[in-house]
Amino acid sequence: MRKLIGIGVGPGAEDLLTLRAVRALREADHIFVPRNGRKTRAFDIIRDIAGDRDVIFLDFPMGETMDQFYREAFEAIDRATKDGEVSVLATLGDGTIYATLTEVIDAGRKSDMVFELVPGIPAFLAGINGLIETLVEKGESFLLVDALKDDEPLHADCIAILKTREPKKIFDRLRDEGYDAIYLENIETERWAMTRESDRCSGRGAYMSLILARRRPWNTAEILKHTEGRIQLL
What we know:
By secondary structure, the chain is an alpha/beta fold. It is built from seven helices and eleven strands.
């Protein structure tokens, strides 16, 4: 039997890896990590655990037709993983949420490879925990998206928008529709930053960014109290 274990490694901090993820990484015969140009944050997270073992990087250029790259990535894993071996593919956040990992697995559904997934902490949960705030309360609704459509009505009590592009435009729309928004980027890294001012996130929109918005107002004083020294204000 051959197995591929997909591991969510969280948003950026090594100590947010689960014990199951650490065990799988240590026991794996082969470790694969996605790479976008020179960006290898997933590798930065697992670097110490991987040690001096060879790590195989899989290229996923942004803005390209991705199906081909998913197929090529699985083919590389398929060639490397011999009978009785286990390979690991690490991905940021959780592998089931807007992730490359499950796309690669889907490309190999017709193979004899056995698949397993290890959950990871997604950025929006790490972000709200960093603010020491409640994401949703009993009876409230929640919407998770990677983009807002211009004509999409917003009814949820809380919204998380991942990989934000044009954050100022999103901020202004959310405010107009009665939401209180916070922009976060580089969560759980040394460059973790945030703002509640739309003008301050103008032109930013980092790949590892998100906006959290609630109809209930954020407690700014409490957020600033608990994040001082941990999260930079933009």
